[in-house]
Amino acid sequence: METINIVCVDDQPEVLDAVIKDLGALATHFNIEEAESADECLDLMDELEARGELVGLVISDHVMPGTSGVALLGEISEDGRFVHTRKVLLTGQATHKDTINAINAARIDHYFEKPWQVEELIDTCRRLLTEFILDQGLDYEEKLEAMDQQTLYKKLKG
């Protein structure tokens, strides 16, 4: 069974800790990794890929020193190794223009404003990870409990 990672990126340690805590329900089936900058995220993704692990989901803050979350997610979208990786932008400071750019240029899969609702975050992550697993053609038996059943049913049916 392949190791699938969720990478969370935020320059504020307390926000990063909150996201990781909120994703705890998924931690038995997915590795949850953290990065405090876009550069750290990209280095981590390179390491994970070099070890043969998959990056199923990246959740990034938008406003960070250096590279923004939109720019980071856009760079990930353009990297052929991570073409199936799902992307979530999590921010409290993005403008309408930033949001449109994130959707169009970075091809994000979901956008959350801070503060987020925990259940909505978990449900969205389940759905996106289920799509990732199915799109990759991975064996999902061991992760069935953590997957979104509606998405699984729709994809398998047809």
From TrEMBL:
The keyword Phosphoprotein applies. The modification 4-aspartylphosphate is found at residue 61. Keywords: Phosphoprotein. SUPFAM superfamilies: CheY-like (SSF52172). Residues 5-129 form the Response regulatory domain. Pfam families: Response_reg. This is Response regulator. It comes from Corallincola platygyrae.
